[in-house]
Amino acid sequence: MTLKRKELIHALLKGIETGDEASVRVVNPDQYIQHNPQTHEGGEGLAALFKRLAKSSPRVKIVRIFSDDDYVFAHTQYDFDSSRIGFEVFRFEGDFTVEHWDNIQLKKGLNSSGHSMLDGPTEATDFDKTEPNRAIVRSFVNEILINGKSDKLKHYIDEQCYTEHNPNLGDGLFALSSLLSESISNDGLMMKYEKNHRLLAEGNFVLSVSEGSFNGTHSSFYDLYRVANDKLVEHWNTIESIPPRSEWKNDNGKF
Fold first, then answer.
1. Is residue 183 packed enough to be buried (19+ CB in 10 Å), middle (13-18) or exposed (0-12)?
2. Position 247 in a domain
3. Rounded to whole angstroms, what are the CA distances from 202 to 3, 111, 129, 132?
4. Domain range holding 131?
5. Helix, strand, coil percent values for the chain (each to nearest 5)
6. CA-only gyration radius of the chain, Å
7. Same domain, 98 and 139
8. Order of all β-strands in the sheet with 83-93
9. Structural domain count of the chain
């Protein structure tokens, strides 16, 4: 079931390239709940969106794809008129997806340590440690990101081999510690986590979905962590501003 669902979502996302209506057959239009505020409800809305996007000759690269119980989540690159990096989350009931969330931002260049927003390991391992790894990330998000206890970073981060893919930060603890302890990066970016909505995990990969503000703008934070030996050793993320409610095309909310 897990592999089949991953294959169905892979086909769905690749359908953006062709506009193929068949790719959205995995969507149950009678139950589908769309959480992208800029997309209309239901499978018909997706089909129309895919047709429109296909006219711009898009390319979709699915870099990582994982599953967690009834959820499939993917880390992707979209090339339309610009390059964007995204996380896609789908909830299944049986063979059909019935709910969708995402978080997409413009692709930026290499960070100060030479890492892109996508490079690094792509396959999950340590499947027997899924729940302990989820618990580690839950504690990190709540204690460090939300409650600001940056003095406890060394408890969670492997400072010898921590690899950072955030385009505004570099490897190691110093940049991350500065960002969290002062709520401001070297580039003057203000970031505040307020609530964690979801933690999805498969083996050594854990995706955190949080809400807060970025430079004073209501935003969603998707953070993907790789865990090894009970420490966070790698991090990828996207940050997306949440449009005002008057601009939403559905009433389901971002989260």
1. middle
2. no
3. 13, 27, 9, 11
4. 127-241
5. 30, 35, 35
6. 18
7. no
8. 33-34, 96-106, 83-93, 71-79, 59-68
9. 2
Strands 59-68 and 71-79: antiparallel
Confirm whether 205 is domain-assigned. Answer: yes
Whether 237 and 140 share a structural domain:
yes
> 223: closest CA among 105, 127, 126, 115?
105
Question: Are the beta carbons of 173 and 179 closer than 8 angstroms?
Answer: no
Same domain, 226 and 165: yes
pTM of the model: 0.93
Across the chain, which has 255 residues, the per-10-residue mean pLDDT values are 92 88 88 90 69 81 98 96 95 96 97 97 98 98 92 91 94 82 55 95 98 94 98 98 94 94
Q: How far apart are CA 205 and CA 208, in angstroms?
A: 10
* Boundary of a domain, candidates 107, 142, 169: 107
